[in-house]
Amino acid sequence: MSSPDPPAALADAPTLAARRLDDLAGRVACASPADGGGDRTGSADGGALEVFAPATAERIGSVPACDADDVDAAVERAREAQDEWAATPASERAAVLDRFGDLVLDRRGELLDLLQVETGKSRRTAVEELFDVPTGCGYLAERAPGALADERRAAVAPGISTATVTYEPVGVVGVISPWNYPLTLSMADALPALAAGNAVVLKPDEKTPYGALALGELLEVAGLPDGLFQVVTGEGPTVGPALIDAVDHVAFTGSTETGRAVAERARRNLVDCSLELGGNNPLVVLDDADVDEAARGAVQACFSNAGQLCLSAERIYVAEPTYDAFLDAFVRETERLTLGTGYDYDAEVGSLVDAAQLDRVESHVADARERGATVLTGGRARPDAGPYCYEPTILTGVDPDATVACEETFGPVVAVAPVPDADAAVAAANDSPYGLNASVWTRDRDRGAALAREIDCGTVNVNDAFLATWGAADAPMGGFGDSGLGRRHGPEGIRRYVESRTIGVSRVGPLGFPDRLPTDWFVRGAFAALSVGRRARRGARRLKERAGLR
Fold this sequence. Notes:
By secondary structure, the protein is of the alpha/beta class. It is built from 19 helices and 20 strands. It has helices at residues 8-11, 18-25, 68-87, 90-106, 108-119, 123-147, 182-195, 210-222, 236-246, 256-268, 291-303, 320-335, 355-370, 403-406, 422-429, 445-452, 467-470, 490-495, 519-546, and strands spanning 48-53, 58-64, 151-153, 161-169, 172-176, 199-203, 229-231, 249-253, 272-276, 281-285, 313-319, 374-377, 393-396, 413-419, 434-435, 437-441, 459-462, 480-481, 484-485, 498-506. The strands form five sheets. Strands 12-13-14-11-10-16-17 form a seven-stranded mixed beta sheet, with helices on both faces. Strands 7-6-5-8-9-19 form a six-stranded mixed beta sheet, sandwiched between helices. A three-stranded antiparallel beta sheet has the order 3-4-20, with no helix packed on it. The N and C termini lie far apart (66 Å).
């Protein structure tokens, strides 16, 4: 139960109260012999998880610690609701999600407060995150029905047979979302699954359950059928495996190490999975870049959400003729940043999420220093701004074997290094097992776009940090290598949640050797027709190429 004296993190929030958090916790999908779940403060064994505010390190509430029985019950309820939802026309499903987007905008004050109290991020970063949700809803409302519509494909014998592809929902989708962008990254997976006709069971990170529960409430208000979207809270090692074993597709966002375990378990169950995993993302500054513009972009690329962003740049490679000027501008722009956790727009960089994350950042910087790196700015915790705040930090002279150079720090730390030319920059950018996001800075946009094709990442931005690709809702987003499997956004992000079915129809009965012609005549005629058809199609392709149509 809530305390009569609310913690400062809640007392300062414009719209939140401890009772509201208790009400949200009551929405967790728990198994209950008496009522089927959803209105208790603990799981079947009465366990609970405490939730803390990074801005003050205070306890702000608790949610049920669900177990495998709770997960099974939630998936069963979702499965019961899914049949009718799958039969609902795609346009009607899309309309529900569109209304949900309106409700998110209407309730933005509370949702922003929830984001900040759970994650410690700055108000500015919270706005960027929240803005993404109704944007995604608008895209799905417009494009999902078309992406799911039946498609006519080229038949084996045009005029004699047809081939049609249909798309059917997989059933129940399990979404496992992270703490760093708890609204955006849960909805980026859940909403297209719902648009495709599936049910969703969402397991939010233990640190950030309340935002997911608030969004579930708004989905119901928007008209989503009861039981179609369930939230289960609990420890990852308990809830995660149970969820993977019960659902028909798994969408996971998190570390590469955990992602491997998710993929292995899903494979054993013969269910598909989509994974957005870690990154150690490169940013390249070419010799013709506008250094002031590149420095401002690098600040956004490296220090948004205190660096706790899967798309964040952690390695910067600068062409030698530009290196000194860029470094001066980058340090200057970084030192202008303000730290804080208030519910206003004064601070640009918020808190790390907890003590463990602060320890990780401090250990990475300490290791780099021990190996000879220089700290140009930052490099220390700022308890005056918040218990887990850390200054935006720029390192140079980083040993290639230093932890910060090889692993994802996931904090406001970046290593900058000079390179001789663009080819060396590309080689350095690609010298990583990760391949999630990259950024290229140049005055010559065509040069930048050509270079982007050489960088082994799922998204590459030219003269932008990450919004040019992430914000392109119609374009797929995902990683190469150790950064994941599958894609979110675009038609690809919708169709990952469907099974395709091909329906072939013959207008003349069985296709094969005819009964009324000698077989050798038919074979000769068939091969002749195949040869003529191939030559005709080749000629048509050449005509199109000459006309500039291909």
